[in-house]
Input
Amino acid sequence: MSSLFNTVLYQPLFNLLVFLYEKLAFNDLGVAIILLTLIIRVILYPLFYKSFKNQTLLQKIQPDIQKIQHDHKNDREKQAQALLALYQQHKVNPFTSFLLVLVQLPILIVIYQLILKGFSPEAFQNLYSFISVPEEINNTLLGLIDLSKRSIVVVGLAAVLQYFQGKLSLPANSVKISRQMVFIGPVLTLIILTSLPAAVGLYWAATSGFSIIQQIIINKRIAKENGEYKTNNSKTP
Output
């Protein structure tokens, strides 16, 4: 299993990081990490969009879900059948969010391994034959922040971006408890990243930053789709 994990995920991402470092990031590890994060977010965008769209639809049909749960509270089988019919009617898959987490988790583990192991002689053994070993390793972001050490600036940036990402992902009619949970992400970010190298915090911040951009795009797309849906319904006699 370890060998499969290395071949399928770690090795390709490590080679991509080295390639970006040498060819596009001007031998700047920070820029290479940001570019790698961007590529990963673009690849995962369709799943990210589908997950949030499902979340929005689930929020809208929540009253129907609660009614079914109340009407069939003594019959689990009928409750499950009614919920399944409701999901099919609105084309909702309640497991999409879980799938997104399931896909992102191994990638997140690999990214952390890449950053924590760094460009060590042992790590370079994973390079493909057509990827050359960098002549020098510059563990900084634009020559300003040493990514091999802890940085309160990077941690603070990651926490702020995490907050705005969580706020944007909330449906407009979210309950008070959901709005309060937006603060949990930034707090956990501060706790986790404070003791880790700045490179990890940079990846975290870049992920949140690109997620914010994607969330704005998704919000506009869903708002447009909802507007078209209402317009079409209003024309139906």
